[in-house]
Write a structure and sequence with these properties.
Length: 130
């Protein structure tokens, strides 16, 4: 699957976004090292802070099926169905991604491709607990 196709899967996933409060639809598609793709959307709640971002939905779907190794994630977000403006992953999602992914996880946005370390150069991880 190409970067463009993975981004397309993220745009498709945004169609299921439950975002009655922000009206900002986000979709994510994460590719496991075995090639499997898991998609997710943002899921909001009337108690706003309980909102789950699209990236975390995708990661949690994968982990709940026993998949914990990933090579790339595509993220698409828009308030008007124009997914050309980049939607950068939030800090909480970067921390969740960093639990399962190395610095070299490829992050595909509408404006190109990045590494996880571009957004989160220094992380809090399990080694910090020792
Ligand atoms: N959101 C995501 O799903 N992913 C991000 O990386 C940024 C923000 C969602 C959360 C909320 O439902 C909406 O976008 C507006 O913040």
């Amino acid at each position: 699957m190409t970067d463009k196709e993975l981004f397309g899967a993220a745009v498709k996933a945004a169609a299921y976004s439950y975002s009655p409060y922000s009206h900002f639809r986000v979709g994510a598609a994460i590719m496991a090292t075995d090639g499997r793709i898991f998609t997710g959307c943002n899921i909001e709640n009337a108690s706003y802070s309980l909102t789950n971002c699209a990236e975390r939905t995708a990661v949690f779907k994968a982990v709940s099926e026993g998949v914990i190794k990933f090579k790339a994630i595509a993220i698409a977000g828009s308030s008007d169905n124009d997914f050309t403006k980049p939607c950068t992953p939030c800090g909480a999602c970067l921390q969740v991604l960093s639990e399962f992914c190395g610095d070299d996880l490829v992050v595909i946005l509408s404006n190109g491709w990045f590494k996880l370390s571009d957004f989160l150069p220094v992380r809090f991880g399990s080694e910090s607990l020792k």
